[in-house]
Structures are given as structure tokens and as C-alpha cells.
Design brief:
Structural class: alpha+beta
Number of domains: 1
Radius of gyration: 15 Å
Distance between the termini: 29 Å
Strand content: 15-25%
Number of helices: 5
Order of helices and strands: EEEHHEEHHH
Number of strands: 5
Strand order of the largest sheet: 1-2-3-5-4
Helix content: 25-40%
Shape: globular
């Protein structure tokens, strides 16, 4: 896995299915050095306004099409989105008419946030980067 490390916090945990890269292992408390390599798509609750909600099915279907099954082996399993696939998912709004682009863009971003909501390290890293 190179410089990626699997973090485990129990078999059902979203954290157990997340791969994080740490470029500086000696500075474990410096979360600005932690980078998300990939995450497994999981069941999640998405809080979104009605106008964007109708695009969630297309966003989820596209995410599944882009995801790599069993990226880290069959023992870990799941459908994994890597950073380049996240970038591809963020181009989905370009496939819609101009009057729908912002709603689709919002649906994509809220979907991604909901997928990684349980990752405490992600939140801390985001706050540290701000």
C-alpha cells in the first residue's frame, strides 16, 4: 500500500474502511500532513434541500460506476472512491443543463460530505487546513 495505512476501529466502522496517507509518521498529531487516499462508499444519511435531492440517485449511481471494487483486497471489500474519481464525480454537473448545474453540484458535494461524515480525522484535518 505504499505510504497509505489502513485505520481500523472495528469491522463495521467507516473509519475501518478508510485509507489515510500520512507523509510524516513522526508528527502523528500534525493532522495537516494527513491526506485522504480513498474511502469506501457506505450507507449514509444525506441532508439536502428538495431542489438538489432529486439528483442524489444520479450522483450515487455515478459514484458506484466510478468506484473501484475491492481496491484493497477482498478482505476489506467495498467500492472505493479515490481522489481522481472524486474529481471525476465533481464534473457530473457539466452533463446537465445550465439551469440545473448548481443543484447537481450541491448534490455531489453534500453526497461526498455525507460519505465521509463519520471520519473524525477528516474533520480535524479540514479544520487544521482552514
Amino acid at each position: 500500500m505504499g505510504d497509505c495505512e489502513t485505520l481500523r476501529d472495528g469491522p463495521a466502522s467507516a473509519l475501518a474502511r478508510t485509507i489515510m496517507a500520512n507523509t510524516d509518521f513522526t508528527a502523528q498529531n500534525n493532522l495537516s500532513n494527513v491526506k485522504l487516499c480513498a474511502f469506501a462508499l457506505t450507507d449514509c444519511i444525506v441532508h439536502i434541500e428538495t431542489q438538489s435531492a432529486k439528483y442524489l440517485r444520479a450522483v450515487h449511481r455515478t459514484a458506484l460506476e466510478l468506484a473501484v471494487p475491492n481496491l484493497y483486497g477482498s478482505e476489506v471489500g467495498g467500492f472505493w472512491l479515490k481522489s481522481d474519481q472524486i474529481d471525476q464525480l465533481r464534473t457530473l454537473p457539466d452533463c446537465y443543463p445550465a439551469n440545473e448545474v448548481e443543484f447537481v453540484r450541491r448534490a455531489v458535494e453534500v453526497y461526498l460530505e455525507a460519505q465521509i461524515e463519520g471520519l473524525e480525522l477528516h474533520r480535524q484535518a479540514s479544520e487544521a487546513g482552514s
